[in-house]
Amino acid sequence: MANYTTMHMGGAAAHFGAAQEREQVEQAVAWAKSQNLPVNVLGEGSNMIVGDGSVQALILKLEIAGFMTQPLGDGLVRVTVGGGEHWDDVVKRTVDLGLTGLETLSMIPGTTGAAPVQNAGAYGGEIADHLVDVEAYDMRDRAWVTLTAKDCDLGYRSSRFREADAGRFIITSVRFDLREGAPDPARYERLVKRLTADGITQPTGQQLRDTVMALRARCYQIQVSYQVRGRFQESDCGCGDVTAVGA
């Protein structure tokens, strides 16, 4: 597993597979259940630590791709994203298309399917702000379901996927409603200060993304230093509300 986690830690998985299609998810779960094995879903491994011993489970790496847009009128656009898509690539694509809503979530590591699990957020924004619903495979009931944002029970860095139903669902696609045009004013104090210092009073989505990326870059420099020393500490970079989504 060391090759599949950003900390480069972890022993061998007893069983490992990857799913690029919905049907492969269903088939993999059915096989694991027939072998009395638990299923552990893997994204990009950026929010997990694996022990050195053998992992007695089916590790299922979610690689379902996809990015589609649907204009809804009045400047509103619905974006459907595969659960295996790299999150920051999704943010970049929406910004490049002139859509606003996700730009403050730039550079959060991990996959799109993992983002709702923690209601990932940073710099005053979070998944709950624009989530419509998720498509997921219910491993308990062996059925495909669509769960609305309300169904997901999103809270501060939490959801039903982390709490009451941890380990029950595999999120294969996520839908957001985003807007064309100028983004909402920045709310996060550190972000506002940086924009002001740069002389930006009415930022575009791209300017917000660039500013967030600059702030995050400093955080990463500090956090990587901590990781090399083998410790987890609270840094002074002002990114205390940032969560990774890669598990």
What does this molecule look like?
- By secondary structure, this protein is an alpha+beta fold.
- The chain has two domains: 2-62, Uridine Diphospho-n-acetylenolpyruvylglucosamine Reductase, domain 2; 65-247, Uridine Diphospho-n-acetylenolpyruvylglucosamine Reductase, domain 3 (2-Layer Sandwich).
- Helices cover 23% and strands 26% of the residues.
- It is built from four helices and eleven strands.
- It has helices at residues 22-34, 87-96, 189-197, 205-228; strands at 13-19, 39-42, 55-62, 67-73, 76-82, 99-100, 121-122, 125-126, 131-138, 143-148, 169-180.
- Strands 4, 5, 6, 9, 10 and 11 form a six-stranded antiparallel sheet that branches. Strands 1-3-2 form a three-stranded parallel sheet, covered by helices on one side.
- The chain is globular, with a radius of gyration of 19 Å.
- It starts with 12 loop residues before the first strand and ends in a 19-residue tail after the last helix.
- The relative contact order is 0.17.
Main beta sheet, described? 6 strands, antiparallel
The first-level CATH class name of the largest domain: Alpha Beta
| Overall radius of gyration | 19 Å
* Rough outline: globular
Which whole number gives the mean pLDDT? 88
- CATH fold-level name of the largest domain: Uridine Diphospho-n-acetylenolpyruvylglucosamine Reductase, domain 3
Q: Kindly, what is the distance between the CA atoms of the first and last residues, rounded to a whole number of angstroms?
A: 12 Å
The tally of helices reads 4
Structural class: alpha+beta
Oligomeric organization of the protein chains = single chain
- β-sheet strand percentage: 25-35%
- Order of SSEs: EHEEEEHEEEEEEHH
CATH architecture classification of the largest domain: 2-Layer Sandwich
Q: Indicate how many domains the architecture comprises.
A: 2
Tell me the total number of β-strands: 11
